[in-house]
Amino acid sequence: MARYELLQTKLKTGEVVAALPATGISYTETLNQAGTATFGIPLNAPQADPAKLFPGGSGLVVVRDGDPVWGGILWSAAADLAAGTLSLGASGYHSHYRGRHMVDGFDATDWDIADLLRTWLYRVNAVNTDLDELKPTGRKRSRQWTRYELKNVAEAVEQMADNVGGYNFRYQSYWKEPRKVVGNRFLITDRSGSATTHYLTHGANCEVRQVTYDSTALATAAYAIGADNGAGEKLVGVAQNSELVERIPTKQLVTTYSDVKETETLLTKAQATVNAGRAPTAIPTLTLYPGVRPQDYLPGDVCVVVADSGYVALADEFVLTERTTGVDTNGRETIGLALANRELFSNAIPS
Question: Are 167 and 146 in contact (CB under 8 A)?
Fold first, then answer.
């Protein structure tokens, strides 16, 4: 049985403040998002000190068998006086950048993706995020926002990821100084997924609990609407999916990008929409059998999922989009995975 700890840290530095007496642990790492976590501690525990443990200013880190596996920011606390419990709600470090904006605007032409990311995050980094692993990608992008647009930094990172030639990103918790200081490292990987040897077979090493099929993204044509061109008209990019027209009735998707000022960019976004909308999205959710480490299955990993049961006939590659780990009061660990068909990431949905 794995040994879990919940640590409180100083959010700005990562210094460990205390080990909290957790009565329950549940944390989720979500692809290209902050992820969430919930924890329980006794309401009257000495560590439940409102002067030190407070929403918006405290860090929380999950340690499994001595290694940090999740870290983030305490955003909410709910005290149940009758039950004598304190429930803590947290989100990953990316949630810090949700509250940061480009107050001075930004203007860059043909910068490498890594340089854009490093610049955006560095300027507003108040949670000690390590950016040293951001290496040149060879892919250039241009981005312009005035100071009046107050572009949200987290949104800018997500939008550039979610496009053709984009990337997947996550924050990795690690020991900067064992047992004393926890760091968080920003990492990017290939948008189409990271190759692995994960082979998940229903009834052998996992239980596929559900498979949903979603046609929301299907598009025979896509229209991307941008900023005003100065003459009272909106810029528009259009792309068609002629192959899909033969299979389904006309289905058009319209998306708006009010801060995009180039028609070429809008055409790329429209094309990405129809690329991703060529087939319904298959989304399997499964629970791993005991005996694996959660950190061996990372959001962005490519996994082969095999399940054969009536309508469900899967033997395909999927990208891991979310991993949820729960630990009950007896220390029992459960690991759930949510995945989506890989084509969705190879073609990319624009934002």
Answer: no
